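[RESIDUES AND BACKBONE]
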Amino acid sequence: MFKFIIKGLLKDRSRSLFPILTISAGVMLTVLMYSWLNGFATMTIRENARFSTGHIKIMTRAYEKMAEQRPLDLALLGTDEIVKNVREKYPEITWLPRIYFGGLLDLPDENGETKSQGEIMGMAVDLLSNNKEKDLLNLEKAVIQGRLPGKQGEILISQEVADKMGIKLQDDVTVITSTMFGSLSMYNFNVCGTITFGVSAMDRGAVIIDLSDARYMLDMENGASEILGIMPKYDEEKTYKISVEFNSEFTDESDQYSSIMKPLREQNNLDFLISSMDERLGTMIFIFVFIMSLVLWNAGLMNGIRRYGEVGVRLAIGESKGHIYRMMIFESLMIGVAGTIIGTAIGLIFSYILQYTGIDISNLMKDAKVLMSTKMQAQVNSTSYVIGLLPGILSSVLGAVISGIGIYKRNTAQLFKELET
């Protein structure tokens, strides 16, 4: 019977060609859209983890409530002790203290008067004692001119800030900001390099200095705004488990300066963003299944009319209605499998192309405040290979189930009269 159905599909292409093309197109779009959304989610998690949230993050309870403002007066103190504890408890995770600060960058002229001035978004990381931050932020590749800081008193500024303010390498600049205790602070740095991350929110005004310089400038001895935890590979379930363990041991509800740990998904509205993408993916698959089922249902009805005589003959020679109905469903199943394989293959080809080349969206990200790369790329994973099974096979079978109901409406008593005509 299997060979009989296969021969029928191959010899009569009108029964298989249009449904396979329809299913292939739908499956291709499903695979491509899934890989595209997966790439967006992966990029969002990666960029936020690198620059802001880590996979998990430690801060004070008071700081956590105002985290978007990054208030230095609510920062962590005794950072070395906290880092020591978490490194012993979770040695597989990399723990990185950071300080975020805002302020003005002042470029003086030859007389020491202000030549140009602009707002900056400062980030202080440990650049001098290890390479973990350099690797995480990919600083070696981000450098456009000059080099990374090799000693205290050196600063990296974004290429965009340098262009706006007319800053050149080896210029002396002054960072004007306020300390942890609210007093005015001015600290001189030498520009050793310019950088571009490819993330608009960072490239607009980022400057990077060593953590030791920031602690001195901001009067934050052994302090840090936040301590980021970076896993070898992001594991959302594990981030929640570790956070619960840490908070049950170190968080004191009566002390607003006690430490609290937050997983990535609970920061920067990422829970809403990631949940929205999951919901949109589910909605997209449902729409594809619904539309393709309608198309294939209609194709099945047209095909049923064309095969009216064939079905009549098969009923007349004694084949049961149920058997014909099941064979048509089985036939649609094979069409669905063939369309799914073709559509998945084409969808994966386009997805891999977008994964390696990406699309430049920098013109759309000029004023963006979210941490997103200016190059959108798809991300193919194991799910990309099977995501098309549901819409491909279900829509084909569903279309045959609905259109094949007409078989039961045939009156066997009139078959011979129909065949005579």
